[in-house]
Q: What sequence folds into this?
């Protein structure tokens, strides 16, 4: 069994071919091989977004009535229900109930009559019946950086990642600008769409397909052209399709502990297959076959044990350091070991950014506002808990330093 260079002469026993300590060596060897053919060792794209807002349809004050047989036969009977809904919205606005609705969205996040005239096509802003899912996000993630996105479920983390990945279908509209390197719209990005990926929280696979066949299919769709492929040796001929597929597949199976599963079905709730944690690892390995420059991971550690979750994030950290990937990850539960791997943090509350900046300064920022970090607690959980505190909640006083309870932290908008 081959020893990685970082462990030779240090350990008396052999180590697996691709532990995390050896992954960097393997990547660097591949980069040297690419350089020997006159190819760039990696592709790097920065990601910038300016005043990014995502509009959705419906809101807390919009009442939708289900269709009935009578309504289908006589549709004019539904007019009275629409009038009731309009009166309800007006009453909530007059009494101040619209200040912070059932969803926690404030007045500037939902459409109302005060918004003025109807917006033209292509013009930014809310239309009637729309609301902001996220509003006014701005930031930059450079090549080689990792940004952590935290917030309560429903706060807009998934919407934010989908918008960054160019997945705009299903939304009423996207305002603001997203820059992928020098490309500022999805049309110019289309020829390079394989360089931007989004991994959803759900594991969607063909349950009857074997794990090995699943990775084979993904690799066949992501195998580089011979002109851009790794050579067999320094300055030599490029690998064949089969050689590249075999090498990459073996690496991914080794990294994520799936060597015993290639001949097992992926499965689902009806088809017997791999376990839930193994299926999540299959999803991660499948996405990594693309070797995309900009990667979005939506709660990718759901269903993984703590050790595997940490290992996965260390793989992303290694890819960012060596391959100069631009990585954005949303997590709902992240230990301090995972949290310390990131460069930046974005904290989302009710569709608005309440913190964006260096990971090392996030805790101090909220402590200066008066929030107390529990002894021995996870910083990521602390940041998420801050977004759950309401100004009119009795639990607020338990989260504040005594000398700051009188005024309380000012809510950021």
A:
């Amino acid at each position: 069994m081959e020893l990685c260079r970082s462990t030779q002469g240090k350990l008396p026993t052999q180590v697996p071919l691709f532990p995390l300590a050896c992954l960097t060596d393997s990547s660097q060897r591949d980069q040297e091989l690419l350089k020997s053919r006159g190819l760039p060792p990696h592709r790097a794209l920065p990601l910038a977004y300016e005043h990014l807002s995502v509009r959705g349809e419906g809101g807390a004050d919009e009442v939708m009535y289900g269709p009935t047989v009578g309504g289908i036969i006589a549709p004019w009977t539904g007019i009275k229900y629409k009038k009731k809904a309009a009166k309800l919205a007006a009453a909530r606005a007059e009494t101040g109930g619209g200040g912070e609705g059932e969803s926690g969205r404030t007045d500037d996040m939902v459409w109302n009559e005060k918004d003025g005239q109807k917006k033209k096509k292509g013009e930014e802003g809310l239309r009637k019946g729309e609301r902001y899912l996220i509003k006014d996000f701005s930031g930059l993630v450079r090549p080689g950086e990792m940004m952590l996105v935290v917030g309560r479920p429903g706060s807009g983390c998934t919407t934010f990642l989908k918008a960054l990945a160019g997945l705009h279908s299903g939304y009423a509209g996207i305002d603001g600008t997203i820059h992928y390197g020098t490309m500022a719209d999805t049309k110019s990005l289309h020829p390079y769409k394989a360089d931007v990926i989004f991994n959803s929280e759900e594991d969607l696979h063909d349950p009857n397909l074997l794990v090995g066949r699943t990775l084979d299919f993904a690799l066949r769709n992501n195998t580089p052209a011979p002109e851009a492929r790794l050579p067999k040796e320094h300055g030599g001929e490029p690998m064949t399709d089969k050689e590249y597929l075999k090498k990459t597949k073996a690496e991914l199976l080794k990294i994520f502990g799936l060597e015993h599963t290639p001949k097992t079905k992926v499965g689902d709730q009806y088809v017997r297959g791999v376990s839930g944690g193994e299926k999540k690892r299959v999803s991660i390995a499948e996405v990594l076959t693309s070797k995309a420059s900009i990667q979005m991971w939506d709660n990718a550690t759901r269903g993984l044990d703590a050790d595997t979750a940490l290992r996965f994030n260390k793989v992303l950290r290694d890819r960012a350091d060596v391959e100069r990937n631009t990585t954005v990850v949303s997590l709902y539960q992240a230990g301090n070991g995972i949290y310390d791997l990131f460069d930046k943090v974005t904290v989302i509350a009710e569709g608005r950014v309440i913190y964006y900046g260096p990971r090392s300064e996030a805790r101090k920022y909220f402590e200066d506002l008066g929030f107390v970090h529990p002894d021995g607690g996870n910083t990521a959980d602390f940041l998420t808990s801050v977004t759950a505190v309401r100004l009119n909640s009795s639990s607020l006083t338990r989260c504040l330093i005594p000398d700051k309870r009188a005024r309380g932290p000012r809510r950021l908008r």
In short: The radius of gyration is 25 Å. The beta strands are 47-57, 130-141, 146-150, 173-180, 196-199, 294-298, 326-330, 344-349, 352-358.
